[in-house]
Design goal:
Helices cover 64% and strands 11% of the residues. With 230 residues, the protein is mainly α. The strands form three sheets. It has a two-stranded antiparallel sheet with strand order 1-2. The radius of gyration is 28 Å and the shape is elongated.
Length: 230
């Protein structure tokens, strides 16, 4: 009844905003105390026109309070629904719109950028560690007068690729790890592994993998032949 849209000559009336202002964690409360009311609530956030035009019907989704909280930050609605663990409720049209809208408007660009950067650095790594060294071996079969010049160009290419790899990829990883380490130390967020305390961000397997990659690249930099032959 709170979600019903009523109107008179002056304005329309709906209790949706007041309801979420009074209970900003309404979705969490329903998943705990009354999960059977979740479909009713979500159905009330969708308005469907009674008439059709060209075989289609207009539908309005009132999902503002499912996307952002009162402070303008990202709402925890999807987190609560995920913890609830009901595969049927996550397929509700309102929740599908909640997931698709941020992905198509915001998240997809960051995701594509991060994956493109990863693939680019991976290509540079393969070039410097596998492709160009094999090219240098093939040059030895050529004539002596062209060997020195071509071998020099290949070595310069390998050096530039590895310099970019260490400065770009390794530098970015060390910056991320250092920033999160400082934040955890300042806020006192740690995980206990027996008697050992580690920063809380390492509880995420992705961050743990990034730390392992940073350590591996650091070990490669320490043993880099170009540095020892300088």
């Amino acid at each position: 009844d709170l979600l019903a849209i009523r109107g008179d000559r002056e304005r329309y009336y709906c209790g949706m905003h007041q309801m979420f202002a009074r209970h900003p964690d309404l979705i969490r409360l329903l998943t705990i105390d009354a999960p059977q009311l979740l479909p009713t609530l979500l159905d009330g956030l969708i308005w469907r026109s009674r008439t059709t035009e060209n075989g289609v019907r207009r539908v309005n989704y009132y999902i503002k309070h499912l996307l952002v909280d009162a402070e303008g930050g990202l709402s925890r609605t999807l987190e609560w629904i995920t913890d609830f663990g009901d595969p049927k409720i996550i397929c509700h049209p309102a929740l599908v719109m909640v997931t698709d809208l941020p992905w198509s408007r915001v998240a997809i660009f960051t995701f594509v950028y991060n994956r493109a950067w990863f693939l680019f650095t991976l290509l540079i790594f393969l070039s410097s560690q596998t492709i160009l060294p094999k090219t240098q071996v093939l040059i030895t079969a050529k004539k002596a007068d062209t060997f020195v010049a071509e071998a020099f160009r290949v070595r310069v290419s390998i050096g530039l690729c590895r310099a970019f790899l260490y400065s770009g990829s390794l530098g970015h990883l060390l910056f991320q790890q250092g920033r999160q380490l400082i934040e955890c130390c300042r806020e006192g967020r740690y995980l206990r592994l027996g008697r050992l305390k580690v920063p809380a961000y390492l509880g995420n397997w992705q961050e743990l993998t990034r730390l392992a990659l940073a350590l591996a690249l650091t070990a490669m930099l320490i043993t880099e032949p170009f540095l020892h032959c300088w």
